[in-house]
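User: ok so my PI wants both of these folded by tonight, can you help

Assistant: No problem, let's get them done. Here's the first:
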Amino acid sequence: MPVGLFRVCLLVITAIVNHPLFFPKENGTVPESTEEIIQKMKEREESLRLEQLRLEQEIADQEATQKALEKAAVVVEESKEEKVRWDMWTALSMVIFLLIELWRQDFQEGNWQDIGGEEDDMAVLGKAFKGVAFPNKAVLASFYEKRILGTTGDMARMREMVEGFADDLLEALRSVCNRDADMEVEDCMGVGSMYENWRVRKPFVCDLIVPFAPPEPYCFRCQTWCSGDSFPPDEQGYGTIKVCRADEDTAGCICDKTKLGEDMLCLLHSQGGSTRPSSEMEDLLCFKNTQYLDADQVMKWFQIAVTKAWNRISHKYEFDLSFSLLDSPGALKIKFKSGKSIAFNLTPVVQYENSDVYFISHFPRSSLAADIPSSTHWFLTFAVYERRFIQLVSKTLPANACHVSCLQILSFLHGKQCSLTGPSGLTNYHLKTVLLHLLQARPSQDWAPEKLEARLQDMLKFLEKCLHEKKLYHFFIGNGNVPAELGFPIVFQRAEPLNLFRPFVLRRDIYRKMVDTFHEMLRNMSALINEYTVHIPLAHTNGIRKEPL
């Protein structure tokens, strides 16, 4: 009991002693602690507010990012859909292009043979033929008999005389040349209208080509635009001729294709064999500092050699020989004491591999090679195969077929028109190309002699179509239907077709002149033919109908 009272009293005393009212000075810090707490609470509240703002900003940024990602996803999806649509259009365009290309190839390989084949197509003529009176069969037959047939005998006698003299001249040329250093000349060959029997206009000019080869141990290596290497469009139809040693093979070595440094040596070719002196290559008629045959150098050499050969044999003949045209280095003229003269062209050529395709240095009296890229570029001529094709087809045609007559009449009309209005870009070679295409397109029976009028109309319509489209393709290049009997090189059959009218696409003045000349020829056709036509009896003229085409 006393112990319990003592504990209670001790507790009361302790409480009284520790009461804050008894010690005001010691407990004066209590209000200050409260203000600090309040201040800290305010600071905490401010920090929380700032944190809230930061979090709200982050949330807004995340929402904006999410919207941007969703928008980007939509754009990507739309681009994918657009790409799919574009790919579909691209694929469709490619299919259409391939169909057009296949149709074009079929057209060139023979499907275009229907041109002029249907009577409806034959009756529909172009604007150029409106109002043109076309001579009928009787007038054409009379014109052909009077103006053209009489020239056939003259051509035969002239060919015989020129060929005999050319053989003698080339034999003399071989004798004056150095067999160890000069070019080796082969026998000449006759090509062109005089040897295809369709030349009608005087003066008659024989075209002879003379193949030549380099002396041993050299050889020619020919490269054409369709041999695999890239050629610019303006060099299609041309090729280059490289002079190499017969035992030299540069196809697999880069030393001939790239410039090696002064401190580098080709291990495949010796120093003496890989680099020949410039003077030696120039002696081989190459362009300066190259191994490529120079057409200008060849013609200079040939003119000098022909002059030496003529000096050796001139005493045997009673006429003079001279070069007739400065712009045609191979143009020669025989002048008799009576004043008469005979002109012929003797042009050096290089054989392409083992075929009858030849690289020709210059085209006499022709604009086919008027813009040769350089003197190391040689144009290819297929004249031998053209002559063989005409001979081959002629064997399958009816007797007295009218194919040559059509070409002769058209050539005569064109020549007469050019004499009135001046020369144009249209040449006799273009006219012959038209005939070659139609000979392949039409059946043999369509060339019977009584169908001369219809076939002449076909040629004029075909030519008008080509002029309108500015497209006249070379007959042999790109033509897969060349008869196998000709032995024509397959590399040219597989080549892209060569448009003979391509030079006129950019030269609008020449093209305009060519079209105007064609239209004038059509309008003057009846007058030109009637001028050389014998009088037809009244009984015949009553049956002549001159209907506009």
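One down. Here's the second:
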Amino acid sequence: MALRARALYDFRSENPGEISLREHEVLSLCSEQDIEGWLEGVNSRGDRGLFPASYVQVIRAAEPPPPARYANVPVGGFEPLPSPAAFKPAAQQPPPEPFPPPPAGYPFPPYGGSYQPSQGSDDDWDDDWDDSSTVADEPGALGSSYPDYEAAGGGASGRYRLSTRSEPSLGPRGAGHPPGHPHPPGGGGAAKSSATVSRNLNRFSTFVKSGGEAFVLGEASGFVKDGDKLCVVLGPRGPEWQENPYPFQCSIEDPTKQTKFKGMKSYIAYKLVPSHTGQQVHRRYKHFDWLYGRLAEKFPVISVPHLPEKQATGRFEEDFISKRRKGLAWWMDHMCSHPVLAQCDAFQHFLTCPSTDEKAWKQGKRKAEKDEMVGANFFLTISVPTGPGASLDLQEVESQVDGFKAFTKKMDESALQLNHTANEFARKQVTGFKKEYQKVGHSFKCLSQAFELDQQAFSAGLNQAIAFTAEAYDAIGDLFADQPRQDLDPVMDLLALYQGHLANFPDIIHVQKGALTKVKESKRHVEEGKMELQKAEGIQERCNIISFATLAEINHFHKIRVRDFKSQMQHFLQQQILFFQKVTQKLEEALHKYDSV
């Protein structure tokens, strides 16, 4: 039997995706499960959409309708008499307060988001690298946003139980009402002193999906091991991630084509040699893709560098393989240079697990996929400075973040422009410049051939000199065609990597901004006498943790940016100098041929 509900109050739709209700109207429900106080169903007029869950009462199939003669008697007994206000004519009843819009993204997918590996033809997953089991099938898997940590017990060595949960209290909207929603007409409310900070209505925003909202509102709880702690320290430029005490690098070399299933499937494997182990391992692109997905999901306030793009065709062409290897080398450099990412267990497993040990690889893979320190619990792992001088001024933090937001916008526009200019210039060098110089060389060659028709001995030297000049210009054309590989291509590779970083920061900033909004809301409640000061201070303290992490990531970005662009611009100019030296050398050699004429 289809689920049904009866409207308790009138509701007028004001946003796309909503439907209007009339009091006593019977609706068909698509699901009894509400999403942040909203249900989906079909009204008596056949309109399908969203409406407030608090405005309807679900009709249970197990409860038979009362006899007609007792239709005015509630099932299960008599209810208290309604208040005098209920006897007012309908026209005098207070209308419902304006209702907030439903969450964006209607119709709703299941709550919670995670990175999904790209499913292109570049590297598929139909092999024995993974098996048919999934994390969701195993006990203790990350099946919900907040696992039941209470059952885990406590007292384990090196593990600390951290919790931001507070005792639930009924806000002025009453229990069971979605945060931010007003009471239905005639409903009562709790005391003003027990106000709570409202949840974001858009449950698919980055702030919500990352777990930032749940953490700030005090709903995170878990055990943090010593190895999971991420420390932010105060450096000369402000908050910084604590440096990796054992820095290392990792080279990516010798991409080779390999086959399996008796040659039916081909793929490219890259040799990785981490400096801290010296042991080489081989990884396919899909292994990089899996690792990126785990890290992007685990670290919502860290910019995980993007991988080089996939390609559906030409995957085994030499130019594509070489370009991808260079892109992966940049990616690896940024991974190893990040104090947090470099020490992540999933990354270390990726670098050190022997290529031939399938069992060990799968065990490490499943362990990473069952990591409990994700979502709201990730923020429990962040340790920030304490004591005098360590607190953050939220107004100053907001100003710094706004400044960085403007910086990333301008840098992104400039990077796009430079990338377009460099790409266009490289194209001209490879095709246009080469062709033009070789046209000049061909013209000189035609001239020398014409002069050769004169058999005078004294003109032989001139003919040879002009022919050599023609060859010099032909060689210069080849130099122009080959030069972008040496200088412009590396610049564009770096720009591509940083465009990935710049695409990450809007989400990182959104998490920090969302936390700051909750702090402002809690302060307003305190000023209005609706919230205890202690609860508001807890929200601000948790916002500080997110702010420390955000500023640490911003400082790391600037530090690496200066390092990378300094090195790359030096390389570009050095290659330009070498290029023009080669051109000059060719022209000087041609010039000397005329000395003996």
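Confidence is low (pLDDT under 50) at residues 63-157, 167-193. The chain is about 40% helix and 10% strand. Good luck tonight!
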